Structure formats: structure tokens, C-alpha cells
Batch of 2 targets.
Target 1
Amino acid sequence: VRRLHRHSLVVVGAGPAGAAAALHFRRCRPDASVLLLEKAAFPRDKVCGDAISPDGVGELERLGARSVVDGYPPIARMRVRSPGGVEAAGVAPEPGYVVPRQVLDARLADLAVAAGAELRRVKVRTVEQDGHAVRIDERFEAPALVGADGANSVVRRQLGVRPNPAGHVGIALRGYAPRNGQDPELYLRWVAAGGPAYAWAFPVDDRVRNVGFGLLTSTTVTRDLLEQEVHRNLGPVAPDAATLRAHHLPMSSGRPCPYHGRVLLAGDAAALVNPLTGEGIFYALLSGRLAAQAVLDAPHDPGPYYTALLHDALGRHFRHTGLLARMAAWPWTIDSVVTAARDPAVLQTVGELAFGKGVLTPRVVAHITAGWLRHRWGLSAR
Ligand SMILES: Cc1cc2nc3c(=O)[nH]c(=O)nc-3n(C[C@H](O)[C@H](O)[C@H](O)COP(=O)(O)OP(=O)(O)OC[C@H]3O[C@@H](n4cnc5c(N)ncnc54)[C@H](O)[C@@H]3O)c2cc1C
């Protein structure tokens, strides 16, 4: 009979959500035994645009982990182009960063370990629970578990929680390409593809940029087509073929209940990805921290408390981005939003909606309504 190892908290997956959960729990309870189970050996690649939004940086700061962006230049400028060719550009009050996930995730996991979490290389297969404890692979046991094992979460499947419904899962292809003199700005070029879709070019450092193309509410596309879209929208970017990889994005517009008994889901496992942009690092960091906080504050029944914390932090944001993602099936919506975003104050609101915890403001709604009227009467959005 295998020995059962008991812990205060077990976290499955050491990406941003899992590392944040383990780090926060240990910081608040230095005597706790926190086990972080991860199937990959760090440093490992993760398919991503690598952009950390200003809200994401704020969350890193809150976790005492801001050092993970050290050595990468701050980027405050953003340029956006709509399907109809309208452009908006501006400088955000706070910068973001583009840190390859191979670096970011290893640094975050290191911080969790430095804070006293135990990181073990284990590919989790089974999760069982009764009213008192959760058992993982019949080897580890804890009063609570945080499932932070990403878009194809085994924990989520083990709970019997269905995958996101069609229309609430996206797919995106990423590659690393030479920087080729790209300005120090995040560039997003939206296209009309039956829903929000865009190509991006994000500078990592002086030499390299992260490029890609994502369909945000559909997966009915081949890899070749995604690759063609990168070139069609960004020009001759020449990404290194070995780095071109695609992955699914479970959007928050189709998210499940974030807990089941004593198991809390965080990050992509809880489908906490922005349906307008596919951004997920900020939500992963935030939800990981809140999941840990819920286990600390309500150890006997953390699920409802976690749900309430998530709702307080992101409830309105989820509603507004879900609504906008549905409206974005009509390209004029994005044309209207980008037209509005030529006003720097609106650009800031739009940036927060797209990459952080922002909500719709009357001004943005007025611009979308005006855009709809222009579209209705056949006028150009320019
Ligand atoms: C192409 C693309 C571009 C993107 N661009 C951006 C961007 O620019 N900015 C942004 O903020 N977000 C972006 N995202 C979204 C972002 O990558 C995710 O939202 C984020 O990684 C979620 O973090 P996580 O910790 O929940 O999951 P992950 O980062 O996926 O981490 C999950 C971890 O769990 C481990 N794991 C999985 N299964 C098991 C198992 N059975 N046992 C043990 N360990 C396991 C994995 O190895 C992994 O380390 C992008 C996504 C894609 C696909």
C-alpha cells in the first residue's frame, strides 16, 4: 500500500495561476505545507503572446513577484488597427512587459519554491474527494486543492466539469521572429473573421518579437490558415518555424462554476481568458491568489467564498467583455471601439477592458451606439 502524503494545500500546475496560489498561501501561512505538482520540467515553453498587462504587473507586485519582469523593457505604447482600417495609438499610464513564458514561468515557480512550497514533477491523473479531503493519484492528500493545470485541465475533467461550449473556445498560433526595427509598442491588427480575431506583434527585446494570430471565439481553422494569417496581416515577419505552435484558449464567456467541493479551479482551468483578446496571465495570477486566499479564510468550505471573491474582482468585467465579444461578431463593433479609442481617455478604458479588469463606460457605449448608427446608415466609421 502506497503511503499517502498529507499537505495543507495541493496545487496542480505551476503556470502563473498555480505559482501565484502556492506563493500567496505560503506567504500568508509560512508554516503550511504546500505541494505544487507540475508535469513539465522548468524552464519550459508555453504557447503565449507573452504580454503582461499593467493589471498583470500590479498583480505581480501584490504577490511580491515583480522581479520576474526584471531585464525586460517596459512597454507603454499600444497601436491597434480595426478590420475597417481605423488606427488608434497611445501610451498607457502604466507599462506592461513582454516576457517569454520560458523565463516568466520558471521565475514564478522559483519564487514559490523560495517561499517554501515544494515543487514536484508529477503528471496528475486522478482527483477524488470526500467531505473532508482531496486525494490526488492516491498519493497526496490535502483539505483543499487548486486546479491550475491550464486549458486542457485534467482536474477539471476529473471533476466531471464539461469543456467550454463551442463559441467560447479560441485558438491561436504563436512564433518568435526577428524584431526587424518594430517600434517599442504592442501592435494588434483586428480582422473580420466571424468573431474577434487579430494578428499581433509584441517586441520582447532589441532582437526578438512575439508574433501570432488568434481566432477568439472559434476553433474551426487549420494551422496552415493561422500561419497564412500571420503573414497576410503582419507582412514578411519570418518566424522561426520551430517556435510556431498553436493552442486553445477557453474564454471566460463560457466559464464553468469555479469550484466543486474542495477543489477550486484557477486560470485557464477555470476558463478565465478575456474573450476580446485571449489575454489570460493577469486572470491566472489573480485567480490563483484568490483561490489561495479562499482556502486560508474559509478552510472548511472555500468554494462559495472563492466564487464571491472572483465575482467581486471580475464580475462586471466578465459581463461587459462577454457582451462585447458577442457584439464583436459584427466587425463594425471593433471599428467603432477603435474609432473611439483615438481619444486617449477612451483608449485607456478599452485597454483595461481588453487586458485587465476594466468595464464599459458610458463614453465607450455612446461611441459603439454611434458606430452602429453609422453602420446602419451606411456611413464610414472613419
Ligand atoms: C497563442 C496564445 C497567445 C496568448 N497570448 C497571451 C498574452 O500575450 N498575454 C496573456 O496574458 N495571455 C495570453 N495567452 C493566454 C495565457 O497563455 C494563459 O491564459 C495562461 O498561460 C494561463 O495560465 P495558467 O497558469 O492558468 O495555465 P498554464 O500557463 O497553461 O499552466 C498550466 C500548467 O499546468 C501544467 N499541467 C498541465 N496538466 C498537468 C497535469 N496533469 N499534472 C501536472 N501539471 C500539469 C502545465 O505543464 C503548465 O505548466 C495566450 C494564449 C495562447 C494560446
Note: The first helix runs from residue 16 to 28.
Target 2
Amino acid sequence: LTAEYFISGRGVIDGTGTDLQEGVGLLVRDGLIAGVGTAAELTGEGVPVIDAGDDVIIPGFIDSHTHITIRPGEGDQHAQMVKPKVWQTVRGVENLRLMIASGVTTARIMTEDGDIDLLYRDAIARGEIVGPRLRVSGRGLAPTGGHGSAAGGVDGPDALRTAVRDHAARGVDHIKIFTTGGVSSKRGSLADSAYTEEEIATIIEEAARHGLFVSTHAHGGLGAEYAIRHGIRSIEHGTMLTPEQLAEMVERGVFLVTNNTIRNHPKGIEQGDGADPFIMEKLREARAAGLRATELARASGVKMAVGTDSMHGFFGYELQWLVEHGWTPMQALVAATRTGAELMGIDDCGTLEAGKRADFVLLRRNPLEDIHAVYDIDAVYKEGVEIITPDELSRTPGAVSPKELAEL
Ligand SMILES: [Zn+2]
């Protein structure tokens, strides 16, 4: 591992919305981007140069809504969420590897049980496990019997306030709540509010006291409306949002996180739960609603980020789907990079600019010409270290060899 190097291929797409900058590369120093420019501008004497051939360098993707342990294609996600922790742990390792192999260098985890997400976050940060940098919620807050309550519900302002304080004390990065029903379960309607307005307001107010944003699983209706009114950071899914609600989100700076892979990809909910006619019918409705919402969102100008919602390894499909439904490749790419970082309120990743972490992906083709290029990954770098190689091997950045261990 070299502390400093210059890497360049055909050019850089920096994630800010600027077009491909031909002939430009990155100067990487100690895991950070020290400069973006040409070799002539940035390489002093003795700086190693990595030739990335014709590859295009883009920012590492940000999966703004996913989970670690579940796989939608295997069905009944809520039952998966409460499987034995050993079972979940074993699957988490492979899911995390698939995420980073698809170019995701940062992922926002939107509910896990037993603090498994906090443990994975810290293990990845220490370099013990391969995976994206994680921002985690711990167990999401849902009312008893509601969607998202498989591991237990929390009810009433007092208990919710205590739960938020407990989450903050354990070190979560954000709070996740569920304020409407969902597509993949029979619990709750998609348009009523699962929590009272007072409960929602209490959660957001208490979280703010600890410097934490709150995001809600909400398809629309009152569950979205109360949350928007009381300072929610983002609406997750939002398939039934109205133009009026989207306009209010724009005015209040609320983000929308859309998840199209899990609903539309044949290996998502369809493969896992499609045999149940009730869920399949709900899924068909949600697909139509999701398409309408994505069109409305684009027209409204709401800040939109994307997440696969546990479709590990399928991140490229989020971009492909958006482009197939009217977004430009640039709009899709920015939603998948810069906007994800903005949503989390962090400024150290999401774009390729001096001072940011050196999280980047080498693509063999230009995704602005053909969005399918996002599947054509040559290598993935996180904090300047090549994690996924052109042979699709994964490296654990902090791994210690037996020889090194013996010498410690
Ligand atoms: Zn989710």
C-alpha cells in the first residue's frame, strides 16, 4: 500500500454534475483525494502513477437505503430479520462483499436487530471485514404490530423518547422509523399513519437533541404528512406521495429515497414473495405507484437519493431503472453519489474533489453514454485502497497475515 499515488484513465466524472473530464486523474494521499487534475499538474517527482487504461473514474456509490442481513429474493423479509443472529451474521459477510463489489463504498443501513449493524460498521472501519463504510440505525422504531415491528414495537411518546435516547447512547448514526405499512408484509395500510402525530413529533424532536436525523419508511398519506410537517430528514419509498406533499418536501428540504430494484427487479420481492397473491397484488400496485412517484419527484425537483433496500450486488439496476424511466444518466449518477452524502449530512464522500475520501470506481466504459456501463466495473477503491480487483477478488484493507501476527 502506497501512501501517495496518481491514478488516471480516460477521465473523471466527479459526481457534482460536471461532464466527463477527459485526461484528468486523481492524486491520492493517505486515503484522501489530494487533487483532481492532469498528471502534468499533479505528479511531482517520485509519485507512483497507476495507469487505468481507458477506464472512467467515478465516485463510489452511496446506497442510501439498505440492510445487511436480509435477502428479498428469499422471501418473508420480516422473518429473516428475526432469524438467529449466527445465521444473520454468516449471510451479512457475503451481502456486504456483494455490495462493495457492485461499487457501493458507503451504505446507509435502515434497520437491523441486535446492534449487528453497529458491530459490522466498526469491524469494517477497523479493516477486519470487506464492505462499504456503514452509517447505521440500529433497530428501527415501529408501533406494536406495525410494518417493521417484527423484532418488537415501541409505543407512546415516553417510550419512544427513551428508545431514541438509548439508540443515541449506543452510537447509531441516524434514527429509522416506520410510519406506514409496507409492500412486503400484510401489516398496515400504505396511506394511514402507523404512529400518531405526537409520537412522530416526539421522535424527531428527541433525535435532534442528540444531533441525529430521522428517516421514515412511508409510502404516502398521513404517515408521510406528519413526518414532513415535523422535520423528518427523508421519506423512504414515498410511492404514494402527492405533488402537494412533494412541493412541501422541496420547501422544507426533505429528501426522498427511492428503492426501485426491490420492487421491479424479478429477483426482488417478486421472486421472494410473488407466490402469495395478496403480496403480488400489492406489489403490482406499488410498481405502478412507484413509477408515478418517480416521475412526480423528477418534475418537483425534490432532492432524491437511491437505495437497493437489500438487493445486495444490484446497485447498478437502481441507475438503469431511473434512466429507463426518464432520468438522464447524469441525474441518476448524482442521486447515487453526491445526493446520498448530502442526505446523511456528511461532506467527506459522494464526489471526487480535493479533501474527500478516495472512494472511487473504475468503469470500463462511460456511463453517461450508456448507463449499463455501471455494471462494467474494473476495480473498486475505498479510502485509496483497491478493495475489489479487476479479477473480482476482494481484499480486506487491514487484514493481518499469520506472519505479521506472529511478529506482533
Ligand atoms: Zn428497507
Note: The longest strand covers residues 32-37.
